[in-house]
Write a structure and sequence with these properties.
This protein is mostly beta strands. The protein contains three helices and 35 strands. A hairpin with a 4-residue loop joins strand 21 and strand 22.
Length: 507
């Protein structure tokens, strides 16, 4: 049932049946490199050919480190850009990878795409995708965003400008896997207020663009309106369908696409309007080619589920500290969600759920600039001025629903994580091996951490796996910045004596 997984690792096929969840793991570590401190910005590109590639940025000194299958260094290829990059995005294939990068030169920001092979040699010439006049100020953030389809055959590069009438102007550039331009559009999307927010961006295998627009309700840290939005691949228009909330409120939506049936699934926690407590799950199914919402359901959490969320007595606020992390589509048309209990405290900054999800100074832990806590853009200057802060990442809820939206089973992974000033080593990585979901997270152990592996099978059975072998002392893992690179392998960054290193775990 986990065989169809529409996540960052792509479609998990029948070959996964070769692997069993009880197999012992093998861990291979990279050795510390002189240039790579814990302040190095990085992104795990993935497996290309016979190599594993990692992009690194040391204060404008960019390079791609190449490792063999046992994480031994093969080469370190400098990327000699004339100007500092604002952002990079990578899309890896079996025999190549695409790097989409943007930089500012004088008053313009340029966005280029470049293909490279497994040895980080440039294939052909870089392709100019677009440029934007931004004036002579020095930018510190990206202008363009990148999404790609499940099969990686369609790549969408887009930027959004907002005018005085609160209309978002989208400039979209649809490319194929050879960086050939298939379509470019300029499309307007009206926003009802400054509090409206866009989330859940997805692109299907044909290049159709789907996301959610939410509108914050007056005097509430919640959304009182929501719309499913789609842009057909080769048309200059947005299709918008109102999600009937029936006087209920929602917050963050997670969105996944079913390419086979041209369906978009969106889920969010909902609130009944009388109280500010999470009441259950809002489930939406959207036929984006027809601009039609055929299913909207509000699935209330019963007392048993609320008791499980608090590991005690059922309470109305049982899910108030939980945030949706992943939405996984099952092969039978059902879906599975994971949610993690999270909260933080600071000396003089009050906790606000809306600001956490959507605010301009968001602490959202899966922020989409660099997949690293060390990027200079990861936290805002506002965050760094807040002084003392403690982060808490606790239990994980795993809920499985059938195609009609009925809860089939639920389970909870119990953990208790906290740290001061940083959450780099907290939270978890979800890895799908077809037969089970692996939840990898740090457990406090003798003033440090030990990496744990908890598996859940398609019928909801939870198993704490034995402690992993080769957990060398001195390596501290950062699981939530890891990336699954194959059916049974993942690469996780770690810190060793103030150096950034990488570990490949093979199941």
């Amino acid at each position: 049932m986990f065989g169809k997984w529409l996540g960052t690792a792509g479609l998990i096929g029948a070959a996964l049946l070769l692997y069993a969840t009880g197999n012992a793991q093998k861990i291979y570590y990279t050795q510390p490199e002189r240039d790579d401190s814990r302040n190095t910005a990085f992104e795990i590109i993935g497996k290309v050919g016979q190599h594993i590639l990692v992009y690194k940025d040391n204060n404008g000194d960019e390079a791609i480190s190449i490792y063999d299958d046992q994480m031994n260094p093969v080469n370190r290829v400098p990327l000699r850009f004339r100007y500092n990059l604002l952002n990079v995005d990578f899309i890896n294939y079996p025999d190549k990878f695409i790097m989409i990068y943007q930089y500012q030169y004088r008053r313009y920001v340029y966005c280029y795409g470049m293909m490279m092979d497994e040895n980080a040699n440039i294939i052909g010439q870089p392709v100019l995708i677009d440029s934007t006049d931004v004036g002579f100020g020095n930018l510190r953030h990206k202008i363009y965003s990148v999404n790609y389809s499940e099969n990686k055959q369609r790549i969408l590069v887009y930027k959004i400008n907002q005018n005085k009438e609160l209309t978002n102007i989208f400039y979209t550039f649809l490319l194929n896997d050879q960086l050939q331009l298939l379509n470019n559009s300029r499309v307007s999307l009206p926003m009802e207020s400054k509090k409206d927010y866009l989330t859940g961006f997805n692109v299907d295998n044909e290049g159709n663009f789907v996301f959610v627009k939410v509108g914050k309700a007056n005097n509430k840290d919640l959304a009182g309106e929501a719309w499913m939005v789609s842009k057909p691949a080769y048309e200059d228009t947005f299709l918008t369908a109102t999600i009937p909330l029936d006087r209920k409120y929602v917050d963050e939506f997670k969105v996944k696409l079913d390419n086979d049936h041209h369906l978009s699934y969106a889920v969010s926690f909902f609130y009944d309007g009388r109280h500010n407590n999470v009441s259950g799950l809002c489930y939406v199914r959207y036929q984006y080619l027809n601009d039609s919402i055929d299913i909207t359901r509000f699935i209330a959490f019963d007392n048993n589920l609320k008791a499980g969320a608090r590991n005690g007595n059922p309470r109305d606020d049982a899910f108030d500290d939980y945030f949706l992390r992943q939405l996984t589509l099952r092969s039978d048309g059902g879906f599975l969600i994971t949610a993690e209990q999270f909260y933080s405290s600071a000396g003089y900054n009050p906790w606000n759920r809306w600001d956490y999800l959507y605010g301009p100074y968001t602490l959202y832990p899966y922020y989409d600039f660099y997949y690293t806590p060390f990027s200079p853009w990861y936290y805002s200057p506002f965050y760094r001025s807040m002084g003392y802060r403690r982060f808490h990442y606790n239990d994980i809820a795993v809920l499985s629903y059938d195609p009609s939206g009925k809860l089939e089973w639920s389970n909870f992974i119990r953990k208790d994580q906290y740290d001061d000033q940083t959450d780099d080593f907290l939270s978890y990585q979800l890895m799908n091996t077809g037969l089970a979901l692996h939840f990898l997270y740090n457990e406090p152990y003798r003033r440090s951490y030990i990496l744990r592996d908890v598996t859940i099978t398609p019928d909801g059975k939870l198993t704490m796996q034995p402690t992993m072998r080769s957990l060398d002392r001195g390596y501290v893992f950062m699981p939530r910045y890891g990336k699954q690179i194959s059916a049974n392998e993942t690469v996780i960054p770690c810190i060793y004596r103030n150096f950034i290193c990488f570990a490949k775990i093979q199941f």
